[in-house]
Amino acid sequence: MSSLSQGVVTTPLRSFAGPRGLIDKYFYLAASLLFAAIVIAGFSRTVDQNLLHAAPPRPVLLWIHGFAFTSWIVVYIAQSMLVRTHHVAWHRLFGWFAAALGAFMVPLGLTVAVIMGRFDAVVLHLSDPAFLSVPFFDMLVFGLLVSLAILWRKKPELHRRLLFLATCCLLDAPFGRFDFLFNNSLFFPCLDAVILLGLARDMLVNRRIHIVYRYAFPAILVGQAFIIYLWRGAPAWWLGLTRHILGI
Description:
Layout: E1 3-5, E2 8-10, H1 18-43, H2 47-52, H3 60-84, H4 88-122, H5 133-151, H6 156-168, H7 172-175, H8 179-183, H9 187-206, H10 211-233, H11 236-246
Antiparallel strand pairs: 1-2
């Protein structure tokens, strides 16, 4: 509650003791390290065979794609550390680099999805054009969430949750490197489980779920269900459209 002292309104800083306080202080930094662990665990299973020593060699753009998306995780960790160590000025400065990187990742991700879809069909003879629904959805949601985070960069409670959600929505790629998760379309539920950590953090620390999660998470779940339908169900209109996009 605000108090009035010598004509100046002051608001005491929130202070929690015990595990609740630790979660409040370190959740987003811990989440950034969890993101890195998931990415390493997932891509370490396939990066050698599918990129480093791939036969036939993969398109050069795939290397750029891997570097850009890895850079996003590194930047997310760095930005979380800067906030945690109270280097807010540096955080804001590097934030513009993160914004530029995010803006670059969206068209890059869409382009690579098309190039690799055609590569799989024409070179590897592993055609699955309907799968385009997954990377297209990822880039749509990621781009929207990052755009909103930039728009509301001066509102930290919105900004950090939007970036947390945006990064979570990239995790279907590393989760999908596990054959069981990919074959059973479980990569979305896995990334949803990571999002639920954010909701659990809010319930523990703030005793309520933030409005960002209340609006964004249900929309993401509905979108995921539709995307899986487009991929696994492959309705004729979507299959025809994706074959046209891939030129196969």
